[in-house]
Design goal:
alpha/beta, Rossmann fold, 5 strands, 53% helix, globular
Length: 201
């Protein structure tokens, strides 16, 4: 089973590519979904989050108050590091568990912050980057989420620079102006190339 890391900035189309790969037969491991699950009521991260940040960051249902935490980590880089120190080991352990249970020729780790977290490069054989211009990212997120342009650009500023993501890529799909059919064809081409090749680690 080959291990592929999938990443891309907000609004790049990464989630669409993940869905296409899963449709072709890849085992998809979504680190964002894992992060949400461990910060839900009774989630594995909640005791440590409450101990590190205090009860004011716990929502009435017992899960993480995501809006309050989002505001804090945007304002304070040290708080972001504290949160990551709690979440990342738990996410990594769950990724390993899911990968061990997976079947098929490819396991795809959907990791929005793969480039920012260097440890991920050692866990995968290939990195697939989904790329788009910043203007396209902004327009897509505004259309789907109703965010302001300023809010989207603030998130983009927190992510790895586009050039850094592109430099980390073993394969890159420039998803700017592609039709759904063209995007699917590019994904299928990579699938055929990678699924047929033996794993290297």
């Amino acid at each position: 089973m080959r291990r592929i890391g999938l990443t891309g900035g907000i609004g790049s189309g990464k989630s669409t590519v993940a869905t296409l790969l899963a449709g072709l037969g890849a085992a998809l491991i979504d680190t964002d979904a894992i992060a949400r699950a461990i910060a839900q009521p009774q989630g594995a991260a909640m005791p440590a989050i409450e101990a590190a940040f205090g009860p004011e960051f716990i929502a009435p249902d017992g899960g993480l108050d995501r809006d309050r935490m989002r505001a804090l980590v945007f304002a304070e880089p040290a708080a972001k590091k504290r949160l990551e120190a709690i979440l990342h080991p738990l996410i990594g352990a769950e990724c390993d568990r899911q990968a061990a249970a997976a079947s098929g020729p490819l396991v795809v780790f959907d990791v929005p912050l793969l480039v920012e977290s260097q440890r991920w490069r050692t866990r995968v054989e290939r990195v697939l980057v989904i790329d788009a211009t910043e203007e396209t990212q902004v327009q897509r997120v505004m259309a789907r989420s109703g965010w302001s342009a300023e809010a989207v650009r603030a998130v983009i500023a927190q992510q790895a620079p586009r050039a850094l993501r592109r430099a980390a890529a073993d394969a890159l799909i420039f998803n700017d102006g592609l039709s759904p059919e063209e995007l699917a064809a590019e994904v299928r081409h990579l699938w055929e190339r990678w699924a047929a090749a033996p794993a290297t680690r």
